[in-house]
């Protein structure tokens, strides 16, 4: 496939492919029983996420993301932290070889960061002022999947910049440049959030905000990726900690489920995500102690007033007291 040389958003030259030139079969690639062919690239450039061959896909979330790529739908993946929202998008993109860019919408990301700014550059030995495009206009003009992480933490001025491009053919107007940018045919837009745009009522996600409902209405697909079925979570943890036996991982997930139920009941304020279970399994292999790994991976993150109850969760499942150090582990 022929490639093009174009300027990246930081001004360097990158190889970009003009458009997808092949398709992938969803049943063959993702193991989902559906007759879908999704556009894909035959060659990958450096912006394509690294492929994780052991990644375990959630079918519903995978189909939602694939619909975003295939039909240019704006897809918002919502769920608790550590459930793999961003990774899910990246691993779908990796299998499509679709160039991807990920932006974390924390409080430090401003409108200027997204849209661009005037910068002083040297041309022919003279200092001149030149407009440097931000990530949003650059991505909009290329066959790129742009993902906004922590979407519900974005500043209001940033969110209104995004609102216009949420429409499938939504163009971006650069007022300072008297320029209108229309989206590339294969530009795709995704986002992840901990809440569903109504703000945080749990106190778990400090810094998130309510999202303008006119903006939420522009997301064509909203899919919830929360805690997985225990057998699915076991497969995911096992892929990251292959030396830990299945029975031990199953018990780790039981402890995690108790913390999640305790959180929902208001008993504790810290919850074990699947990411934390993976970290626990990996630390247990490092220290050769499940109990000490639990202490380092989760217990020490909890409020001191809640550690007794969290320790009881562990003792209830593993039928043993927590060791205080690796040397005390059995």
> In terms of per-residue confidence, which ranges show pLDDT below 50 for 5 or more consecutive residues?
1-5, 197-201
Largest sheet: 5 strands, parallel
How far apart, in Å, are the first and last alpha carbons? 59 Å
Per DSSP E runs of 2 or more residues, the count of β-strands stands at 13
The fraction of residues in strands falls at: 15-25%
Q: How would the global form be characterised?
A: globular
The secondary-structure element order is: EEEHEHEHEHEEHEHEEEHEHHHHH
Gyration radius from CA atoms, angstroms: 23 Å
Residue-averaged pLDDT: 82
Number of helices: 12
Alpha-beta content class: alpha/beta
How much helicity do the residues have? 25-40%
Strands side by side in the biggest sheet? 6-9-12-5-13
Q: What's the SSE blueprint?
A:
Elements lengths: L3 E4 L5 E4 L5 E4 H5 L6 E4 L18 H13 L3 E4 L6 H12 L3 E5 L6 H5 E8 L2 E8 L1 H6 L4 E5 L6 H10 L6 E3 L4 E3 L6 E6 L19 H4 L4 E4 L5 H11 L5 H19 L9 H14 L2 H8 L9 H12 L12
Parallel strand pairs: 5-12, 5-13, 6-9, 9-12
Antiparallel strand pairs: 1-2, 3-4, 7-8, 10-11
